[in-house]
Amino acid sequence: MSRSELIEKLGISRSMFYVVAKDPRAPQGNDLEEWRSYLEKKMDRPVSSDTISPEEINQLKAKLLKERTGREAVERKLKEMRLEREAEGFIAFAEAQEIITRVLEPLSRILEGIPKKYALRVNPSDPDHAEEMLREMVREVKTQVQDTRGTKITKRKGTK
Fold first, then answer.
1. Both 81 and 114 in a single domain?
2. 104 and 116, same domain (yes or no)
């Protein structure tokens, strides 16, 4: 029997056969029964030549069902963990940063507009000096906020 005939009777792909044949414990000849017994040991399942028996089909179905059940159990556990996290009020760190930024950026814009808007009202005789003093006050407030929040209270592109 040639290698091609042996591979066909074993019912495996040519590439699979040559991968398995590289193993030093693999049979060296072309004896069909020797190869079948070797592959059964290596693959932990019977190797049939033409068709799969009903018993093998049932075993494969049971294996597939077991794997699906395992996957569904893992997915269910992940969903439970997400639900628990959401129920307890936890949010992702990146999402929390985005929310804080969305709140602080409008506040920053309002603070930046105060010196120009109110300088004349604060000191009508010297509005330039009043504006500079108000800017200093805004920098002080922003510095105090940044010390507790972090850096960058500036407007980012695309933020409303």
1. no
2. yes
